[in-house]
Write a structure and sequence with these properties.
By secondary structure, this protein is of the alpha/beta class. The chain is about 55% helix and about 10% strand.
Length: about 725
């Protein structure tokens, strides 16, 4: 089974290593690399679709007619002339000019595909020949030759992400973190019609919309028309390539959205999604004062005295997004946190926006979600088609304390955190069945993981027993045969014997601890498994349709998703008894693993076991490696079980009746009157109050310690950089 995460990482490491040894910087390197990924994927799709077409070709006189470009239309594939196929480039003669060949391939694709004309990179002749040959080979791995479009789409997005983090392509401004894009898509659910992003970057919003529609079993190309605009030529090209590599089509045009207005789309868009540049301060008021997209009385938020330009364009963007929507349209966009509370002209515009009753939801996002900026942001959502019962209300969500630590500088949302935030919106909209479906899915996954615990614990037995037997055999035959005591002078021998005896005593004491630990593990396992099997049998009885390949105790996905809230709460409550047992079991597994490893290390390092015939080093290593593997599997399954149950608890503890309620520190539905009383602020923190912290367990503390470690590492790095800068400045002063 393909591990896409490992593949992404290994491809990036290989490609970046080549760049590090070349004369190219990230900006020069990024677009050509993305072009090669595009070409590899286009070739894969071409070969697969060509085979499909050939099966259905009509024949005359025993010969099938030739394939034409028209045969590829409507099949999410690009027709590739022979010179543009990846294999031809891969198999070029050693003395061939590979850069020239790739440039020709890109030009040939552009000639055949209107959306890509003038888009693909053609700077390959500036690369060193060896670098290009190696890059072409990197993207010809067997996994990639067999990869589907989804795999290549992910790899393409992964490289976009990595180039953004490394500062390529205008500081990464073109790339909106997937967590924020997915949050916007989840909230507005863009499943049809005209979709506009007037600051589309690399078209991430469109790509995620495509995934959203496809996950519903529908064809995005058939249901949606994408419209995008980008000021940068580079980003416009990236957007078109990104759509093509995902099998999507759209109209992407280059232009400055402040001045290049898409007039024909005004009031015609079903959805608007965007991550516009924040706090732009150079827009000409003369050029925008008659802009029909500025629908409020104030129109322009303010003009800077010094520059005579618009002081901050945030509220120009906000008005654009509103104006492009049709009468039932929805919008979701990223905005600077400061915009939610901004005063003066911005406040006047915000008051008019609130008066339209289209402001639907506001979500505060914490720091470090962007790859090139550490500042927090806010997600705004408009809904012109809000039902009457919600027209006077706005959902405020403060998600600043919801995140997953990726690196010391990057945070994101886990899949479950994304779903949990989305579930809050479902309840706000009265979609209880969707909320219950998510809780049911979590219950299913919890029990699916729990059903595998007995199996992984059984797998622990063999390496533990065999390794313990090997250690006992060695222990039983220790003594006079110990190499350390051989051929030593009597006086020195006394000292050596003392040391040896101490080491033997420590080894045997560790072995005794290991035996005791195994007994405790066995007891904990027996206590858990018997009761867990009874619970799983009860769970299976309530879900009579087992999942294929999971056995009779596997839960049916539909069963608990369609259960009542009371039934789900009862199920979750029944499982609570196993949480302390699972945590205890986890401790015993880790302790036994630690003691076994320590006993082996004592034997080999302190008792020179490798020098003795009684030590079967090869078998010891085999069993120790096996123990490492099954221990990791057991811990993973236990943690996964606990993690999925924690998601059930997170939702049920906050929304016990499966209906929306205000949750301190997290969410609150506010009225227009309440917003007016708060000076028309749209900052969720003003309304939701302070987070009520749950009791921390060891897992919480462990995660927080990891965060602190990453934060300290980041501060240390910054301190080193600052010290170096101070030293350099000091040296300059001394000259």
């Amino acid at each position: 089974m393909l591990n896409i995460s490992q593949l992404e990482s290994s491809l990036w490491q290989a490609a970046d290593q080549l760049r590090a040894n070349s004369k190219l910087n990230a900006n020069e390197y990024s677009m050509p690399v993305l072009g090669l990924i595009f070409l590899r994927h286009a070739t894969n799709r071409f070969i697969a679709v060509k085979a499909e077409i050939e099966k259905g070709l009509s024949s005359r006189g025993g010969k099938k007619r030739p394939i034409t470009i028209d045969d590829f239309k409507g099949k999410s594939a690009i027709f590739l002339p022979t010179e543009a196929q990846y294999d031809r480039i891969l198999n070029l003669a050693e003395n061939a000019d590979i850069g020239k060949a790739i440039n020709a391939a890109m030009k040939a694709i552009e000639d055949e595909t209107q959306m890509l004309q003038g888009v693909l990179p053609k700077e390959y002749t500036s690369f060193e020949q060896d670098l290009l040959y190696n890059l072409v080979r990197i993207f010809d791995r067997e996994e990639l030759r067999k990869a589907t479009g989804d795999v290549f789409g992910r790899i393409y997005e992964y490289f976009l992400n990595k180039f953004a983090m490394s500062g390529a392509q205008e500081g990464g401004e073109f790339f909106t973190p997937p967590s924020l894009v997915r949050t916007i898509v989840n909230m507005i659910e863009p499943e049809r019609g005209n979709i506009l992003d007037p600051a589309c970057g690399s078209a991430g919003m469109f790509v995620q919309t495509g995934h959203f529609v496809e996950n519903r079993g529908e064809d995005a190309a058939a249901k949606i028309t994408f419209y995008g605009q980008e000021k940068s030529d580079t980003n416009t090209r990236l957007a078109r390539m990104n759509l093509a590599v995902h099998g999507l089509e759209g109209i992407i045009r280059q232009g400055n959205t402040f001045y290049d207005r898409w007039e024909e789309l005004l009031g015609e868009c079903d959805f608007v999604m965007s991550n516009p540049p924040f706090n732009v301060d150079g827009v000409s008021p003369e050029k925008v004062k008659t802009d029909s997209r500025l629908f409020t009385e104030k129109k322009i938020p303010g003009i800077a005295a010094k520059t005579k330009a618009v002081s901050n364009a945030n509220y120009l963007w906000i008005q654009y997004f509103y104006s492009y929507l049709n009468e039932r349209g929805r919008a979701g966009f990223v905005m600077a946190s400061s915009a939610s509370d901004a005063g003066h002209g911005e406040k006047e515009i915000r008051e008019e926006l609130i008066a339209t009753q289209a402001v639907d939801m506001i979500i505060s996002i914490g720091t470090n979600f962007f790859y090139t900026k550490s500042l927090p942001c806010t997600l705004w959502f408009f809904d012109k088609g809000k039902p009457a019962e919600r027209q006077d209300k706005v959902l405020m969500i403060d998600a600043r304390n919801v995140y997953r630590v990726v690196t010391r500088k990057i945070r994101d949302f886990s899949e479950e955190q994304l779903q949990n935030i989305t579930a809050i919106a479902w309840l706000y909209r009265g979609q209880q069945e969707r909320y219950l479906g998510l809780v049911g899915e979590y219950l299913n996954k919890t029990h699916q993981e729990a059903a595998t615990i007995e199996g992984v614990l059984t797998q622990l037995e063999s390496p533990l027993v065999k390794l313990t037997q090997l250690l006992h055999t060695f222990s039983d035959r220790l003594g006079a045969s110990l190499p350390l005591l051989k051929d030593l002078p009597e006086v020195e021998g006394l000292v050596a014997e003392d040391i040896a005896n101490q080491n033997i005593e420590t080894f045997r004491a560790t072995l005794s601890e290991l035996e005791a630990g195994i007994q405790e593990l066995t007891a904990a396992r027996q206590d858990l498994i018997g009761e867990l099997q009874v619970h799983l049998a009860w769970f299976a009885e309530k879900n009579p349709s087992p999942l294929a390949g999971r056995g009779d105790l596997a839960p049916a996905k539909a069963g608990w998703g369609s259960a009542t809230n009371e039934a789900q709460k009862d199920c979750a409550a029944r499982f609570v008894q196993f949480i302390p047992q699972l945590k205890t079991l986890q401790k015993h597994i880790n302790e036994v693993h630690k003691l076994a490893s320590r006993a082996v290390e004592l034997a080999e390092k302190k008792l020179e076991a490798r020098k003795q015939d009684i030590w079967d080093g090869k078998e010891v290593k085999k069993q120790r490696d096996a123990l490492d593997i099954v221990r990791d599997q057991a811990i993973f399954v236990i943690k996964s079980t606990l993690y999925m149950k924690a998601q059930v608890t997170w939702l049920q503890s906050r929304f016990p009746e499966a209906v929306f309620v205000d949750v301190s520190g997290l969410c609150k539905v506010v009225t227009r009157d309440e917003i007016t009383q708060q000076d028309s602020s749209l900052t969720p923190g003003r309304y939701v109050g302070v987070t009520v912290l749950d009791g921390e367990d060891e897992e919480d503390i462990e995660e927080r310690m990891r965060e602190i470690h990453l934060e300290l590492a980041s501060l240390n790095d910054e301190a080193v950089e600052l010290a170096a800068a101070i030293a350099a400045n000091f040296e300059e002063l001394m000259l």
